[in-house]
Amino acid sequence: MDLGIAGRHALICGASRGMGRAVAQLLAKENVNLTLIARNPDTLGETLNLLETTPSQHVTYIAADLTHESERQRVFSTCAPPDILINNGAGMPPGDFRLWQREDWLKGLDTMMLAPIDMIRLSIDGMIERKFGRIVNLASRSVKTPQAEMGLSNAARTGLVSFSAGLARQVVSHNVTINNVLPGIIDSDAQYAHVHDLARRSHKSYDEIWQERALRNPAGRYGSPMEVAAAVAFFCSHAAGFTTGQSLLVDGGDYNGIF
Ligand SMILES: NC(=O)c1ccc[n+]([C@@H]2O[C@H](COP(=O)([O-])OP(=O)(O)OC[C@H]3O[C@@H](n4cnc5c(N)ncnc54)[C@H](OP(=O)(O)O)[C@@H]3O)[C@@H](O)[C@H]2O)c1
User: Fold this and answer.
1) For the domain 9-184+224-245, what is the CATH superfamily, name and number?
2) Where are the domains of the chain?
3) What pLDDT does residue 136 have?
């Protein structure tokens, strides 16, 4: 499918592994110019080598920790202004809210809400001027189906999605959209870390918990990063210009509701 975004420039956060990497692979095939962001330059380099690109495409990476304001500013002063922003990257581990200190809450809010909002702030006026912008927040199902042990994620990601929904209505007349993709259980590193954490906090093994989670899902399995990337790519497309402020679950039907 031609998404109608060839020659656009996409800034993809958390692009070196998992869902972010899958988004980079899909947009590369659409002839989009790419700047990939993550902290580790080695995995960024590996990802760059995986991409199917043409000689005319400009594809690069910047190693940066996006939880730091100075690093976000460095990214924007280094790369071309983005037409497409994929907000994605760090999450927070599960835990018991009784044990979280104020610092844990501030870190959660900084990582999953305030940093992505700042990335939007740094991108959006240029998009408005150029009359084209697609922003996709890769958040979590926890926005719609809060997970008991994921209090930091439930709260901070809902803040990002809610803020974005308000802003989306202010910018859509400039052909700038903001949407959210909410992944369920996806077969990638953040899920492995999560299941390890759950195993540490229970009497069950990693394999038992992994299996149980798959079987509890109506699809009977984990989703793939590519299945999430396909949803992200749709929101990035030229054709999606009349779709904004929306949140799409990619969760194998785990959320049992029609709206
Ligand atoms: N997998 C799931 O089932 C699932 C479900 C719902 C939500 N999520 C959330 O979706 C996001 C992506 O999940 P995933 O499984 O694709 O994760 P992943 O495979 O662990 O990839 C995370 C990516 O983000 C980068 N990253 C992490 N912290 C960063 C930072 N501070 N600054 C810049 N880049 C950073 C990582 O590279 P570096 O480590 O090199 O920085 C990597 O490229 C996470 O926030 C996760 O919590 C995941």
Assistant:
1) NAD(P)-binding Rossmann-like Domain (3.40.50.720)
2) 9-184+224-245, 186-222
3) 99
Q: Decide: residue 238, CB within 10 A, 0-12 exposed, 13-18 middle, 19+ buried.
A: middle
- Residue 165 identity (one-letter amino acid): A
- Give the model's pLDDT for residue 1: 76
Q: How far is the CA of 113 from the centre of ligand 1 (A)?
A: 14
Ligand 1 within 6 A of CB of 182: no
Length of the chain: 259
Which strands make up the sheet holding 133-138, listed edge to edge? 59-63, 33-38, 9-13, 84-87, 133-138, 176-183, 247-250
Q: Which residues does the chain have with pLDDT short of 70?
A: none
Is 91 close to ligand 1, i.e. is its CB under 6 Å away?
yes
142 Cβ inside 6 Å of ligand 1: no
